[in-house]
From TrEMBL:
Pathway: Protein modification; protein ubiquitination
Region (Disordered): 1-48, 228-267
EC numbers for this chain: 2.3.2.27
Record's subcellular location: Nucleus
Coiled-coil intervals: 61-88, 299-326, 380-449, 720-757
UniProt record, GO biological process: chromatin organization; protein ubiquitination
Protein name per UniProt: E3 ubiquitin protein ligase
Reaction equations catalysed: S-ubiquitinyl-[E2 ubiquitin-conjugating enzyme]-L-cysteine + [acceptor protein]-L-lysine = [E2 ubiquitin-conjugating enzyme]-L-cysteine + N(6)-ubiquitinyl-[acceptor protein]-L-lysine
Biased composition (Basic and acidic residues): 228-260
PROSITE patterns: ZF_RING_1 (PS00518), ZF_RING_2 (PS50089)
Molecular-function GO terms, alphabetical: ubiquitin protein ligase activity; zinc ion binding
């Protein structure tokens, strides 16, 4: 398949057939094409002959081939990854089956000891095999269930106290070991994550290196990147050939010189015998054979070491697998188990001591609980007294609120009454306005009557000018202030005259008709005829003239009286009709307003009464609601305080229990960790010494092999391979040495931590003594340099020197505000707390 993917590289260089130089370019359309690509110049024959277009198809093929090589390498890596994942999955399945088998056997053994289902309790559902795929999630819960079942079995049979104690101690030891293994698992997971990250980076680097190697191996890429590559290769080849010829000439010259300097047995120069040449050739052949034999021996030793390393790894895997499933007999017969048993005995004694301490703590806890109950009782009494006092104050406040609400109701009633008074006043104002309007109408009527009287007087007097002025005054409707003042003095006389005129008007309107007016006109016409006849009979002109003037004056007076009477009649008719209509409307409006006002007053009084009743009911309901809300809030606050107090007590009890259990586990884990770290430290020292010895031996062997091989085969490829192998072995040994040194440092750090935590076994070994010295040195760094007693917890921001708080406060109080180290002055604001994490 891979061979089919490959393409012949004969077309990749420029010295092949015409097919290798043919290039395929994309067809470029003009501006009239349908795809919208326009104004792109097409390649011409002159451009095809340029160097940039030569080898384009070969470059493309090589790029595709390099991509295929990369894909094939990625496929190989993916297959290896899939195979490794399949193996891991199968291994996990085997472990899960072994774990399930072990759990089934454990449940069967527990069933033998406790067959009845009632005695299992709630642990029965927990101990059953899980149905889901997550086998590791409920492990802790199931272990706790097994522990409780074992305790119940041990409590049921008092004769098995010793076995129960041993089982319990073993369970505690296994729990401590489990905790330690969890810690190791966490560190291993972190290390695995780091290694996976490094592996990913190395894989990326490898891919980049492979791509670079493929590009460097491509002739087309070389031609593109280095156009003069062939000429440079020819020059280099010519230089190498010239150097080889010069070396051959030098060797031939040396051989000729050596041959010229050979002597024959008689002392003269001559040709060496064939026997001597054969002896010398055999000596050289033996030396070469010896060197080859030694090289092969080195290769065999390297193969043996590689085989031994492989077998050692397999043995380590088998030991690791056996370690995962260690038989009980081997565990019981091991020295470590006996040591653990002794440690368990010590731990049991410590547990008894802790049990006594626990009993003491429980007694003290009981005393504290009694004190807490007494204190809570006293607090409740004080709170009840305070609540009663607050309730009394609340009742007083409610009485004050009721009094204030009564005052508010009184004020609202008074306000309502004032509003009613204001309404009455407003109605009175409206009535006054109506009366003023009637007064204005009355005044206007009086003015009209006065004008008519003036006109009648002027007509009777025959004063035409006064008559025209009175008539013009009516037309202009001007206010004559002087006339009004005069009329105010003559008001009673005018009223009497007006009454007389009204009676005359009524008499005229009732008696005078049109026929009477015609009769009167005919009478006047008769009188006129009589006057004419009278004038016709007069003889003297002066008498006639005088009579005519008298008659004209009489006629004018009569005409003016007639006009005044007609105007007065017309005005009186208009005024009477208007006044009667206005009076009727005013009377109706007044009656309606009086009726509406009475109805509105009754309605307002009724609504005011209902509103007062509704307000009283609302305020009473609000007072009841406020009282209920206050009682509810008080009850909620009391319940919340009691709930919080109960939660605090429960949390404190849980924290104390957890701290006690954690202290027991931590003591066991720290003791075991200290011993393990000590053992690891010794093993790391031994491995470091062995690695140093191996490194020295390897360096010596490498130097010896390099010297022999350099002397025998200076230009052979075996030298490079052996040097590469030795370099790889040296690097591997260096890595092992670094790993051992790192493990040693970690072991030293862990031993120092364990020694600092437990405070015991500091002087057992020299490494522990070094750890103690290091701890003392670190403590000296952390202590205050001024008193050398307390730890540093305060920093001077100005100079960044650290001391204890007591020393700095002493200098601040004594006003010696200078740094004890550099004597730099500082202020109080420069003193800040220091937190070490």
């Amino acid at each position: 398949m891979h061979q089919a993917l490959k393409r012949p590289l004969s077309a990749l260089d420029g010295s092949s057939s015409e097919d290798a130089t043919s290039t395929k370019r994309p067809t470029l359309t003009s501006k009239h094409s349908s795809n919208g690509v326009a104004d792109i110049p097409l390649a011409t024959d002159a451009e095809e002959d340029e160097p940039a277009y030569k080898g384009l198809e070969a470059f493309r093929k090589e790029a595709i081939y390099r991509r295929l090589l990369e894909a094939r390498r990625d496929l190989g890596r993916a297959e290896q990854r899939a195979a490794s994942l399949t193996q891991s999955w199968e291994h996990s399945q085997r472990i899960a089956q072994d774990w399930q088998l072990l759990w089934t056997l454990l449940v069967e053994d527990l069933t033998k000891f406790q067959p009845s289902a009632e005695e299992w309790g709630p642990e029965r559902e927990v101990l059953l095999p899980p149905t889901d795929h997550n086998q590791l999630a409920p492990v802790q819960v199931r272990c706790d269930a097994v522990h409780s079942v074992l305790k119940r079995i041990a409590a049921r049979d008092p004769q098995n106290g010793i076995e129960a104690a041993s089982i319990s101690s073993r369970a505690d030891a296994l729990a401590a070991e489990s905790a330690q293994l969890r810690v190791q698992l966490t560190s291993a997971l972190l290390e695995g994550k780091r290694l996976s990250t490094q592996l990913s980076e190395l894989q990326l680097s490898l891919q980049r290196a492979e791509k670079r190697a493929d590009r460097l191996a491509s002739l087309t890429v070389r031609r593109v990147e280095r156009p003069n590559w062939e000429e440079e290769e020819r020059r280099r080849q010519a230089a190498e050939d010239a150097q080889a010829r010069a070396e051959a000439d030098r060797v031939a010259a040396e051989a000729q010189h050596h041959q010229d300097n050979q002597v024959v047995p008689n002392g003269l120069p001559g040709v060496i015998s064939q026997h001597e040449l054969d002896a010398e050739r055999e000596a050289h052949s033996a030396e070469v054979s010896e060197a080859l034999a030694e090289a092969m021996m080195r290769l065999d030793e390297a193969d043996k070491l590689r085989t031994e390393l492989t077998s050692t790894r397999e043995t380590a895997e088998e030991l690791r697998a056996e370690l995962e499933r260690v038989p009980d007999e081997r565990v019981l017969a091991s020295v470590l188990y006996r040591d653990l048993h002794s440690h368990f005995t010590t731990a049991s004694e410590e547990a008894e001591r802790l049990g006594k301490s626990l009993a003491t703590v429980e007694a003290e806890n009981l005393t504290l609980r009694e004190q807490l109950l007494d204190q809570s009782t006293s607090s409740n009494d004080a709170a009840s007294a305070q609540i009663d006092e607050l309730q009394t104050l609340l009742k007083g406040n409610e009485a004050d609120v009721a009094r204030l609400r009564g005052q508010r109701d009184d004020l609202q009633a008074e306000l309502t009454e004032r509003r009613q008074r204001d309404g009455v006043k407003s109605s009175q104002h409206e009535e006054m306005k109506e009366l003023l309007n009637a007064r204005e109408a009355r005044i206007q009527t009086l003015r009209s009557e006065v004008r008519r009287v003036h006109m009648i007087i002027a007509a009777r007097a025959g004063d035409t000018e006064a008559f025209q002025k009175a008539k013009a005054r009516e037309a202009s409707d001007e206010d004559d202030v002087a006339l009004i003042e005069e009329l105010q003095g003559r008001l009673k006389a005018a009223e009497q005259t007006s009454a007389d005129l009204r009676r005359q008007l009524e008499a005229r309107s009732s008696s005078t008709t049109e026929e009477e007016m015609l009769v009167r006109a005919s009478a006047l016409q008769g009188e006129l005829d009589a006057l004419r006849s009278l004038l016709d009979g007069a003889g003297d002109g002066d008498v006639v003239k005088r009579k005519l003037e008298e008659q004209e004056r009489a006629t004018t007076s009569i005409r003016l009286e007639l006009d005044a009477s007609s105007e007065a009649t017309k005005a009186l008719c208009d005024e009477v009709d208007r006044l009667s209509a206005a009076f009727a409307d005013a009377e109706k409006l007044a009656a309606k307003n009086v009726h509406d006002v009475a109805k509105l007053e009754d309605k307002m009084l009724r609504l005011t009464t209902e509103k007062s009743k509704a307000d009283n009911k609302y305020f009473a309901a609000m007072r009841a609601k406020d009282a209920l809300d206050n009682e509810r809030r008080t009850a909620l606050r009391t319940a919340e305080r009691q709930t919080k107090a109960l939660e605090r007590y429960a949390e404190a009890e849980k924290v104390l229990s957890a701290q006690l259990v954690a202290a027991e586990k931590e003591a066991a884990v720290r003791k075991r960790a200290m011993e393990d770290q000590t053992t690891k430290l010794i093993e790391a020292d031994r491995e470091a010494r062995l690695l140093r010895v191996r490194e020295q031996d390897a360096l010596k062997a490498k130097q010896h092999a390099e010297a022999r091989l350099a002397a025998l085969f200076p230009q052979q490829a075996e030298d490079a391979r052996s040097a590469a192998r030795e370099l790889e072995q040296r690097q591997r040994l260096e890595r092992q040495l670094e790993r051992a040194q790192r493990e040693k440092a970690e072991a030293l750090a862990a031993a120092a931590a364990a020694a600092a935590a437990t405070g015991t076994n500091r002087g057992r070994r020299s490494s522990t003594a070094d750890t103690g010295m290091q701890v003392d040195y670190l403590n000296s760094l952390l202590r205050c340099s001024a008193c050398n007693d307390r730890y540093r917890n305060t920093i001077l921001v100005k100079c960044l020197h650290t001391f204890c708080e007591e020393c700095v406060n002493a200098r601040v109080q004594t006003r010696q505000r200078k740094c004890p180290h550099c004597a730099a002055a500082f202020a109080t604001s420069d003193v800040q707390p220091l937190y070490l994490q």
